[in-house]
Amino acid sequence: MSSTQQEIAELAKELKANLKQIPDFPSPGILFEDFLPIFTKPDLFQKLVNAFKLHVGDQKVDYVVGLESRGFLFGPTLALALNAGFVPVRKPGKLPGDVHQVEFQKEYGSDKFEMQKGVIPEGAKVLIVDDILATGGSAYGAGELVKLNKGDIVEYLFVLELDFLKGRDRLGKPVFTLLSGQPEKLSN
Ligand SMILES: O=P(O)(O)OC[C@H]1O[C@H](OP(=O)(O)OP(=O)(O)O)[C@H](O)[C@@H]1O
Ligand SMILES: Nc1ncnc2[nH]cnc12
Ligand SMILES: [Mg+2]
Asked: Is 179 in contact with 12 (CB distance < 8 Å)?
């Protein structure tokens, strides 16, 4: 393990200790991973951003794309730390002007996301960030929007991953998860 990886692992350990798990929210059988406690303490929020920044290292990043809603909680701060722009992916009907829209499949049913047309210059290097990678539907949708704007996806970054849903298999680009997630579905 490199010294950078070791530093990230130490930050991750402290951050992980501050997560909360809520069983059966929002529905039975779901173990909800609440990462909001990280934002209640500035030193933890700073560590979250530092850990991602260390991981990104000297890779060129022009834009951080964050997914509504929870990807908005740290996406802009990470963008600032990387001296990159921030671009939101929003739920339908929220963005003014011409938009690209995609429909994508989640665990149960489909959903839609939008991004403003032309907001990312062709060939720009893009990081896509969100709190959780579950089925990968949301991240896949965001990736399609970046491609419609002809951006170049460098990597997907998440705080947590629900490994058993294998969302990363849908993304076709490198995926980094800061904190280890749930290896198995909650059984009850
Ligand atoms: O990998 P997936 O199966 O797509 O699931 C992950 C997404 O689900 C949650 O968002 P949610 O749509 O619940 O809304 P929120 O961010 O507005 O709370 C989470 O914040 C991720 O964005
Ligand atoms: N288990 C979970 N906890 C928090 N957010 C989620 N989004 C999808 N699955 C989730
Ligand atoms: Mg979300």
From this structure: yes
- The CATH number of domain 3-177, selected from 3.30.420.150, 3.40.50.2020, 3.90.226.10, 3.40.109.40: 3.40.50.2020
Convert the pLDDT of each residue in 117-154 to its tens digit: 999 999 999 999 999 999 999 999 999 999 999 999 99
One of 14, 90, 103, 107 is an active-site residue; which one? Answer: 107
Surface-to-core class of residue 76, CB atoms within 10 Å of its CB (0-12 exposed, 13-18 middle, 19+ buried)? middle
- Confidence at 97, pLDDT banded by 50, 70, 90: very high
Respond yes or no: is residue 70 known to be catalytic: yes
The interface predicted TM-score of the complex, written ipTM, equals 0.98
Domain spans of the chain, in order of start: 3-177
β-pair partners for 35: none
